[in-house]
Amino acid sequence: MHNPFAALPAAIPPIAMQIYVVVMFLLVVFGTLIDLAHKGSARYFFKHRQNASFGATRAVGAGEVAGLAAKTIVVTVMAAGEFCGALRRLTHLLTMYGFVLYVVTTAVMVFAYPTAAAPGPAIVPDLWYLGAALVCVGGYWFWFLQRVDVAAEGRSPLQLVRADLFILSLVATTTFALIWARLQATGDQVWANAFLGLYLLANTVLFGSVPWSKFAHMFYKPAAAFQKGIEQANGFRRNLPAPADRPATFGSARRQPNNY
Amino acid sequence: MPTFVYMTSCDGCGYCVDICPSDIMHIDTTYRRAYNIEPNMCWECYSCVKACPQQAIDCRGYADFAPLGHSVRVLREEEKGTVSWRLKFRDGREKNFVSPIRTTPWGSIKGPTDYAPPSAAALASQELAHEPEALKVAALPTLARDRLKKGLV
């Protein structure tokens, strides 16, 4: 696979691409901060954390906290362990790892190998294509087949609500990126430029709509999962009962059912 | 008090949407998290509270067993066949209960789709699906005309 950013027309110099990527990064940072301030997520989180500390029945040591942090990273973040459904977990993992691959390889190609003179090692664009394809598989699978309001409530799979802004702009970005890169490789410059425009538009919507979309959930969820682990360890358990003992006998021991 | 959802715990799986008998648990169109669309119509049956795999749904208990300022949380463990309740009163006292919810292990009962579809003759029969073998009896008792009292039919 070729490096699509190195083959861009001379009208778009590398510095313009690099400034665009930096602007997108800053949009994510400021968008997340605006989202935090608007929804009061941080205020709620720390208030809840304080309440949880009042209900603690035992102190959690620094080593245990470090272990919980490592467990959160490995189980909750890297393996999406909080999902109860196997297929939802799979689509989430496909989308997450695809997005990480796509973003990292985009940054590498734009900043390290932006010219045709030095297109860089072939593995980088290969991973870029792979990441974009994984996002498409996981994203379309989720959006068409797994959304609850579609799967469980019988609504049209084409209905659009604000909660779709993140997933749709994400799959639009990677879909247009793949089409643009393919058209560019085949030399169809007119259509390649058209899809480059769509790619940039979808990209700008994805990173520019953070205050209104679900983009920032990827930063909140690990913190919430870590706090949940702390509450399990310190005995607060969000006031939930302790796990029950596995019963030796199901139901009443006096009369076992005979009608199944 | 009707159910409410802790948004940071909900992952939008939709189990509560499926199980709510009033069909008032829906998915929020902004954040794709569950919420109670019509609290007035919630009769606090606790179905969604027990079904939620993330324990993200809560409900204030009835005043007749838990006065204001309390917490009632439920944990359903289907692999153990148990529902555990923990009541915390505002003076700090606690009560814990565990109840069995099944008489057989989870997954041990065949669902309707695990049985062979009924034949045309079975559909015309007065018996329900898989009777009488599913009831583990040879035959169901039937009413014979000559065994009924005269004058009634």
Helix proportion of chain A: 55-70%
Largest interface: A-B, 38 and 42 residues
**Overall CATH architecture of the largest domain in chain B:** 2-Layer Sandwich
Number of domains of chain A: 1
Overall, the morphology of chain A is elongated
Strand content of chain B: 15-25%
Radius of gyration over C-alpha positions of chain A, nearest whole angstrom = 23 Å
Low-confidence stretches of chain B are none
CATH class of the largest domain in chain B: Alpha Beta
Number of strands of chain A: 0
User: Could you report the average pLDDT of chain B, rounded to the nearest whole number?
Assistant: 88
Roughly how many Å apart are the termini of chain A? 60 Å
- Would you list the SSEs of chain B in sequence order as H and E? EHEEHEEEEH
Q: What is the count of DSSP helices of chain A, taking H or I runs of 4+ residues?
A: 9
Cα end-to-end separation of chain B: 53 Å
Q: Describe the sheet with the most strands of chain B.
A: 3 strands, antiparallel
What is the domain tally of chain B? 2
Could you describe the 3D structure shown?
Chain A has one domain. Chain A has nine helices and no strands. Chain A has helices at 14-39, 41-54, 62-78, 86-112, 123-146, 148-151, 164-186, 189-208, 217-233. In chain A, helix 1 (14-39) packs parallel to helix 8 (189-208), helix 2 packs parallel to helix 9 (217-233) and helix 7 runs antiparallel to helix 8 (189-208). Chain A is elongated and about 80 Å long. Chain B has 153 residues and is mostly beta strands. Chain B folds into two domains: 4-100, Alpha-Beta Plaits (2-Layer Sandwich), CATH 3.30.70.20; 112-147, no CATH class. In chain B, 10% of the residues lie in helices and 20% in strands. Chain B has three helices and seven strands, in the order βαββαββββα. In chain B, a hairpin with a 5-residue loop joins strand 6 and strand 7. Chain B is elongated, with a radius of gyration of 23 Å. Chains A and B meet through helix 6 and helix 9 of A and helix 1, strand 5, strand 6 and strand 7 of B.
